[in-house]
Amino acid sequence: MRPALDVADIFRAHGPAWRLAQAGHLSLGQLKVMSAIEACRTVELGGHVERCEDCDHVRIAYNSCRNRHCPKCQGGAARRWLEAREAELLPLAYYHMVFTLPAQIGDIAFQNKAVVYGMLFKAASEALLTIAADPKHLGARIGLTAVLHTWGSALTHHPHVHCIVPGGGLSLDGQSWVSCRPRFFLPVRVLSRLFRRLFLDRLAAAHAEGRLAFFGNLSGFADRAAFTAHLAPLRRAEWVVYAKRPFAGPESVLAYLARYTHRVAISGSRLVSMDEKGVTFRWKDYRQDGPARRKLMTLAHGEFIRRFLLHVLPTGFHRIRHYGLFANPARAANLAKARALLQAPTPAPADTSADPEIATMAAKACPCCGGRMILVEIFERGASPRTAPPTPAFGIDSS
Fold first, then answer.
1. Is residue 369 part of a domain?
2. How far is CA 65 from CA 74, 148, 192, 319, 389, in A?
3. Which of 123, 162, 167, 214 is the most exposed place for a label (fewest CB within 10 A)?
4. Contact of 124 with 146, CB cutoff 8 Å
5. pLDDT tens-digit map of 277-316
6. What whole-number distance in Å separates Cα of residue 138 and Cα of residue 245?
């Protein structure tokens, strides 16, 4: 069911005035995201007409923008991604690790998204792979899936990666499966310190190679001495690496991934209202415990849009990555070997041949009688459907 308010409603109502006020200060990527979200599931993108085989009820379904930052489009994308991942899950406990950048690096990361977010992925994955391979800890080659999130609950800039890791790996000689201790994967403090060193070393190297840019109040960091001085306290501070309780099994891993892999900064389910004061939404204050943690926040329309656009990723940047045993070149062979050692059956491959938009439509029943809806017309961008009557009009629900 479509929420009463979604991000597109806010962008359509207040985006034009905000774009005009911010002219020259928005990136092409941010402008494209706004345009895509505003056009999503409207006549601007064209669509399809469906008719019920039993009662002749007619329904219009407008096309999705399929932009990865669009809240309405990510549900379908997540389902398709999960179908492929389901066949790769191993029959054992999985662990959830979160690696977070300190606030002192947040502004540097925002001005250098591709470089710094890439370092975050590499430092987190290398810390896990290195400590797991150490015979003092697990002594195994592990695999992991890492998902980048750049937001906090209040839409602030808060870069961190969620890593999903099976509780074990192939022995270093590749001849056996090594399982971790029950309910314990790897020592968090050891991971944290290695993660800190790996990230800061990469960041310093990027500065020395001229791969970082600094603007506004960060322009002084272009000086190497000033940049080094800024990083010095971070080399002594404790960095946050959080180990959550292990998942109950592969099914709970899928349920978690369904919520996290294709999430955007905020979806319609968290939006409460939009009025002359601004946009009100639900958020969690993690400094509080119990019911006091759940709060409402109201932001001016322009501030809400600004915070949403903080999280637009660079073009071509992959926010879901696989490492170790799950790295793409050898993933199939490694998974087959792991299953053989675990004596687990090989699952059937997922069917990804159907067009996702039409498949979504075909799966929907008639809202009047429950009959099968069939595709009767496709209309182009900006055109109106010829089939009548269009009653009622619905968009494709991918949420």
1. yes
2. 10, 22, 39, 19, 25
3. 214
4. yes
5. 999 999 999 888 888 899 999 999 999 999 999 999 999 9
6. 18
